[in-house]
């Protein structure tokens, strides 16, 4: 497993991160979730990503229990704050000082840890002054409850404004967590150049486009039993926009490219995002330990430029590039 620096910081993280969105506390039983975490550790992954909103805190609990016996200093644990949690009262959401301070304490309690390596703003909060948010994050860092601060799905303008305030407050934003895949490239035109300028890395989610780039969804065929597209607990909704016949047909054109590189389709998808030098890590999830063992083989893969061009040609106009699609809710979610 290869490591990369996170932004302009001195922190190294594994270039593949294990994440538990839509799995721990919802799609899979706790014993299977623990087995997946152990498979990640066995494969050399030391970086783990979660959020307080995942299964309303249960995902953090499951991850914390799974990592409890491991040496804390050998792990990099990330979590996030913003979306409604708990009983979802008026202050159980957003990036106010109150919610950030209560959020970090709740996450530490559920994870059974003394500190978080990376604490992330899960979206931009239009209802809270940015100065208040950044000042609260500065206090979280000074308290030792989080070592680094990152964001998720912030646009270029928000990153610049946030970094300016952060540096004035004595710390830096080191990461952004956007959706990014060979099919979803909305960060490339504006977010990536701004991030390179500001010393911010991308830790990307959905590098396999919700599993579509694994090639398992065939045009004109029913979705495989047990797949995300058949999950009525939430997975079906997240993947719906990608279950388009044209998209699925174009994805199948990647199969010979993967075969030429000696890769599974899922490995090709993960390796593709890691070709971007601004990407520090790609987040993978798993509902079975063997998925982890397969996907980590994308680490260290180099895709030649001509084959990157072949991927572009195969996917064609199914690629989404509109930078305006990096968005956060205009009002704090209830």
Keywords:
single chain; 334 residues; alpha/beta; TIM Barrel; eight-stranded parallel β-barrel; two-stranded antiparallel ribbon; 12 helices
Q: Could you characterize what this model shows?
A:
The chain contains twelve helices and ten strands. With 334 residues, it is α/β, with parallel strands linked by helices. It has a single domain, classed as TIM Barrel. Helix 1 (30-42) links the parallel strand 3 and strand 4. The longest helix is centred in the first third of the chain and has 15 residues, at 97-111. The strands form two sheets. An eight-stranded parallel barrel has the order 3-4-5-6-7-8-9-10, surrounded by five helices. Strands 1-2 form a two-stranded antiparallel ribbon. The termini are far apart. The chain is 36% helix and 13% strand.
- Assign an overall shape: globular
Give the overall average pLDDT.
Answer: 93
Please count the beta strands (DSSP E, at least 2 residues each). 10
* End-to-end Cα distance: 40 Å
Structural class: alpha/beta
In sequence order, what are the helices and strands, one letter per element?
Answer: EEEHEHEHEHEHEHEHHHHEHH
Pfam family, one: Aldo_ket_red
Keywords: NADP, Oxidoreductase
Region (Disordered): 315-334
Domain NADP-dependent oxidoreductase: 15-314
